Amino acid sequence: MSANIAPGLWNWLAYWLSEEVLVAVVGLVIVIALITVNSIGLIYAELKVAAHVQRRPGPMEVGWHGWLQPVMDAVKLLGKELVTASAVNKPLFIVAPAIVILPLLVTFIVIPFGKTLIIRDLNMGLLLIFSFSALNVVGILVGGWASNNKYSLLGALRSVSQCVAYEIPILITVMSVIIMTHSLKMSEIIAAQDRVWFIVVQPLAAILYFVASTAETNRLPFDIPEAEGELVAGFHSEYSGMRFALFFLAEYTNMFIVAAVFTTLFLGGWRGPVLPGPIWFLIKVYALIFFVLVARWTFPRLRFDQLMTLAWKVMIPLAMVNLIVTALVMKLVQ
Amino acid sequence: MSITDTSNVNIRSIETDRKISRGLSEQSFWLNLGPQHPATHGVLRILVRMDGERVVEAEPVIGYIHRGHERMGETRGYAQFFPNNSRMDYLGALTYNHGYCEAVEKLAGIEVPRRAVFIRTITSEFNRLSSHLLWLGAYLMDLGAFTPFIYIWEERELINDLLNHVTGSRLTYSYNRFGGVHKDIDDQFITGARAFIKRMRKRFKMYNRLVTGNVIFQARAKGVGAIPKQRAQAYGLTGPCLRACGVEYDIRKKEPYAVYSEVDFDIPTGQNGDAFDRYMVRFLEMEQSLRIIEQCLNRLPNGPYINDQAPRDLAPDPGEVFFAFESPRGQVNIFIKSDGTRIPYRMHWKNPSYTNLSILAELMRGQFIADVISIMGSFDLIIPEIDK
Amino acid sequence: MISSSALNELSKALGAAEVHATDYNRTGSHLDVTVAGDGLRAAAQTLQGRGFFLEDLTAVDHRTHREVVYRFNLYQGPCRVTIRAKADEADAVDTISDLYPLANWMERECHEFLGVTFTGHPDPRRLLLPEDSDFHPLRKDFVVPQEALAPEYHQD
User: Fold this and answer.
1) Chains C and B touching, counted as 3 or more CB pairs less than 8 Å apart
2) pLDDT tens-digit series, residues B320-343
3) pLDDT surpasses 60 at A231
4) How many domains does one find in chain A?
5) C105 and B236: CB-CB below 8 Å?
6) C-alpha atoms less than 13 angstroms from C-alpha of B92 in its C-beta half-sphere
7) Exposure of A17 by Cβ count < 10 A (0-12 exposed, 13-18 middle, 19+ buried)?
8) Strands B29-33 and B45-51, sheet pairing
9) The domain containing residue A141 runs over which residues?
10) For a tag site, which of A35, A188, B333, C75 has the least CB within 10 Å?
């Protein structure tokens, strides 16, 4: 009897303890740790950047120059009561924050932190990232609908229109890059930038991608879905405590992913002299995020129809033109 | 007659509209902007019926902060009414103080020494400046730009320090007295004021670059909420809202009081009556306020700062007075009727935010909800002033 | 400055029943007239034809009767016209809210505070007071109900 079960059991164990699965599990744990640390760091960066743009010191009390402030904020959010209004659609209300954050965890599988520091270098890496990032919108819509609140619904509807509109320039500009690299694999895209970074070759695509992805992440000047002056807090008005923290976490994680993809596509990923790959990667990512943070405190908010006009009438035509020109040039060069 | 008897209810029922539309496809929904809302700057409720992003119908509902100032005016002495001024308009409290004093002095025939008149003008103009600064920050915060909101506080702190030194308060001033002012201004105030004027002129350049020239701000404000001149005049608008439509009407020039007829200043006007013109009118008014303060400081006469002969507890002869003055938001009308006793018989205030708000219902039709926020911000409404 | 002959002509055009002597520097109006209750709308219409705007609309409770006080002014130059109209026995006066849009709100306020009814007003709901209030606080015979006062202010 044991002779029959043992091979089956051994195969089962051998599979689940194999390198691929171990890498995935360890990677998942590291990713969750990474997004937590990233969010905490970004919250601190946001507070300090906001403060210095506004000519004030920012948090200074908690820890040296306030570095423990976001940790305390996280502790506070963890300890808050999870208030659920009685009229909400409970299953949807509870599941919405999860829908927003979980797809983003999946996208970390293909982010190339270094030459071999990538959990799984899939052939369709880029496609994975964009398809799972788009699920972010579903979470927002579900959260806004389930809150049973006109403000939340308005915020959710605006968010859906905005995200759908800005997905298109993102995908078209990324297609221009893919035409040049002939591959969706992250490591091959970085390998194709060994002589010159794509931002030099495709400046228009880079700018369009940067602006469109700022809109995707609902950051000012595109933060109409959560416009504080108008909709109080938009789609996450009704959420408190850890559920709100998950929405917050998702926003900062999305910023990281967007910056990581920009780095991979246009800034040569982990390439750079002297310093090891991951360090360069993180430097580039956080430099981009710094721009996004400063932009928030500099500009007023675009009105919704102006936002849509920008997407449909300005960015999509420009992206199409860029794509056609890239295709023509690639054809001529070959 | 009991206040708890509800048999006479005449509440506009939102439920009625829903019942009518049940069974038909519902196209519009009612949204409540307020009374607690970050953008209404006070307890104002605007009931809007919306069709997607557009407003079909809007109705401001006021009275959430009605405290009965007019009745308080009928139950206490003239001097005891001073604190009520600052509770009506907390941002323009010194201008209200000034106007109230001028009205009662007209009624009672009290003379004011020259130095006191100059001091009143200087402090009123400082108040106008700080009110416009706060409006600037709050309007931009509504539009999403947080930074100017933080920058203006520095200027306001400097003004508050100056005024605190002389009046004793930072927001709710009761500085004027019948016959003059409570305390004289000294050299520290004068040197501080001159230094502030110099600094403020430089800061205006910065605000121009940061805000006025900002493309997104112009897109949010230009063409938004344009009031036709005819409608503005039909509603009796006053203040920057009217001046943005091109009508040059400022009580400081039309019916001068205090020292306004002796100093040199311009009245900025706009052309289109949209939010951007209202913004520019207020911005330029700030510069004109600096001019007025500077001229007053240069010409400040020596002398007493209060008329000692004026009685502290007034009992004016029976009569009426109507006085209009210019607060940062527009023309304020005071009507006081005296019956010879120390308590006024009737006191009526008409505040500019009240007049300006009355046009909002008509103006909001067909606008985007985001534009509604921009319009309300550009109107500079102070809700306690509306509700008295 | 407005000449006295122009003011005379204006007071005749308004159909004034009584012209009160007024000193602008003392009381703030250039012209102060009382019109009969039914001449009010005609006077308001005349003023509108001449380009005046409604500056203020209020009422005074004279204990035996209520008197509505209107102030009109010109944007072009100060010319303040005060029109007084005595409300009739039922405390009713004609409305001018169709001529002057601002009067819509001001008449509502006047009604709720002093009990003056404006016949023909399209929307006589309460403006500042609660919707179901049936008292008029600025009347001279208004007594605050005891149950509305905090215990320490009870007048026992």
Assistant:
1) yes
2) 999 999 999 999 999 999 988 899
3) no
4) 1
5) no
6) 30
7) exposed
8) antiparallel
9) 80-333
10) A188
